[in-house]
Amino acid sequence: MSEQEIKVPDLGGADEVEVIEIIVSEGDSVAEEDPILTVESDKASVELPAPAAGKIAKITVKVGDKVREGDVVGVMAADGDAGSAEQSAPAEESEEKVEAAPEEPKPAPKKSGGSRKETIKVPSLDGMENVPVIEVNVSEGDTIEAESALVTVESDKATMEVPSPYAGKVGKILVKEGDKVSEGDELVELTIEEEGGEKSPAAEPEKPAASEQPAQPSAKPEAAPQPQGSTYEPPAPGTKVHAGPAVRKLARELGADLTRVKGSGPKGRIVKDDVQAYVKSQLQQSQQGGSVGTGSGIPGVKLPDFSQFGDIEKESMSRMMAATATNMQRSWLNVPHVTQFEDADITDMEDFRKSQKAAGEKRGVKMTPLPFLLKACANALAELPQFNVSIDMEKKEVIRKKYIHIGIAVDTPHGLMVPVIRDVDKKGLWELAAESAELAKKARDKQLKPAEMQGACFTITSLGGIGGTAFTPIVNTPEVAILGVSKAAMKPVWDGKEFQPRLMLPLSLSYDHRAVNGADAARFTSALAQSLGDIRTLLL
Ligand code: COA
């Protein structure tokens, strides 16, 4: 064993940097290149690696200290003879760990009013080339602030957001996930509003540390419905994660979502202890039957090599498919589901609906069964407010909503989307028909804004235009119920004297049995059947 000083390596041009995290403790055994501590300049986070394998004898700096290249930050007892007291971490090692910072935001553009288009390009990546885009953080049509992350790139050593130098509206996106980019490559087209030149870029926006990464992609128009664990609180749009590569690596290894981890370091920086504490608390909660986990402890499904059975082809999931899959699984595993079935006699409703055909043509609106369903659900939610809640199992609270916004599941070529109609109780059938048609079109054209997919109290998923007799929809948590609608069919219904041919609409109400009891579910579907059976009651 030989004693070896741990020195600050070449900092890639940075002069003085601050120690923001001490990763090891005295007495810890480390492998060569294990991170010892993290320093941060205004541009980048750098982890100082162990110059050799061995035991940490002493750390001679503390969080907040300022250090420069060549400063001694600790002493270690290196295994074997490999180390020498003079040896410090090789410069190129540390440079590899530097998370490149983007270039300075550009100066203000032209001062004239109106708008102009700008194609935003990849800034200097500090020598990195062909770096994969791991996340596209914006969508076409998004309105963004200067400094909002456009994409996130990741080399094998560093993660970096590429921020927009200007505020504006995102036009065409010129890269996709998996693309490899280098400095100068075009990323997105941005329309920049120039209200007298006052509004555009942040004059001197603070440059983000390169290691910052958005909490999650800014809510995307194509985002899937947001079923989440009942205690899930989505991070505020634009929330940044402040953590170095070693912490990110640890989080990846442990499967921890850094957007949910509270940082205890300087400026809210997430340190390793935070990740470990978070994972521990999640484990404890799931062991205690808490509602946060997504089924930990459930054995995963092992896939065989399908090519042994015949030809196959592999394709990456789209972001939307992956998000929907995760959300469905989260809802399914967190929510004790029960489905209540009912048939509504819509013979009269259909007669009325068809009688409105000419009126609809005049208005340019098609009256389908959906507006009646929306109205009937709004009435039932008002009558049985225990369905218009969300539950917080951590705080043991029921959150009652005083508004009635209903999501409608829309089948689109790119996946399932759930736009939300607000204040359904205050709208008439024509208004609901027009709005649902417009939102469904927007969903199919990928034109929905994030706000148009948020805030639902309840969801309707209608497969009636396609077929089927019944199904068990998955509750779109944190809502507590969802109505599935299947295809109406003529059935013989006994009226006390004889069978009558009646048009019956199958309804399937899935609900979260923690929030709603079975008797109330039966009341809810009966209320629906009643209002759809006699639509005059919708007026009451
Ligand atoms: N029974 C019988 N026919 C029905 C029906 C029902 N329950 N619901 C709709 N129809 C009829 C309509 O009247 C219309 O017929 P018409 O042209 O003769 O009048 C036809 O089916 C098509 O209706 P549609 O265009 O689907 O309109 P809609 O207002 O009923 O539904 C959406 C709109 C957006 C809900 C629907 O288009 C959609 O996307 N459904 C799928 C949702 C989904 O995928 N859910 C799965 C989630 S897991």
From TrEMBL:
Residues 242-279 form the Peripheral subunit-binding (PSBD) domain. It catalyses: N(6)-[(R)-dihydrolipoyl]-L-lysyl-[protein] + acetyl-CoA = N(6)-[(R)-S(8)-acetyldihydrolipoyl]-L-lysyl-[protein] + CoA. Signal peptide: none annotated. GO terms for molecular function: dihydrolipoyllysine-residue acetyltransferase activity; lipoic acid binding. Residues 3-77, 117-191 form the Lipoyl-binding domain. Its cofactor is (R)-lipoate. Binds 2 lipoyl cofactors covalently. Residues 210-221 have a biased composition (Low complexity). Its EC number is 2.3.1.12. It is an enzyme of class 2 (transferase). One of its GO terms (biological process) is pyruvate decarboxylation to acetyl-CoA. SUPFAM superfamilies: CoA-dependent acyltransferases, Peripheral subunit-binding domain of 2-oxo acid dehydrogenase complex, Single hybrid motif. Residues 97-107 have a biased composition (Basic and acidic residues). Residues 75-129, 191-244 are annotated as: Disordered. One of its GO terms (cellular component) is pyruvate dehydrogenase complex. PROSITE patterns: BIOTINYL_LIPOYL, LIPOYL, PSBD. It holds the Pfam family Biotin_lipoyl. Keywords: Acyltransferase, Lipoyl, Pyruvate, Repeat, Transferase. Forms a 24-polypeptide structural core with octahedral symmetry. The pyruvate dehydrogenase complex catalyzes the overall conversion of pyruvate to acetyl-CoA and CO(2). It contains multiple copies of three enzymatic components: pyruvate dehydrogenase (E1), dihydrolipoamide acetyltransferase (E2) and lipoamide dehydrogenase (E3). PANTHER family: DIHYDROLIPOAMIDE ACETYLTRANSFERASE COMPONENT OF PYRUVATE DEHYDROGENASE COMPLEX, DIHYDROLIPOYLLYSINE-RESIDUE ACETYLTRANSFERASE COMPONENT OF PYRUVATE DEHYDROGENASE COMPLEX. Belongs to the 2-oxoacid dehydrogenase family. This is Acetyltransferase component of pyruvate dehydrogenase complex. It comes from Marinobacter nitratireducens.
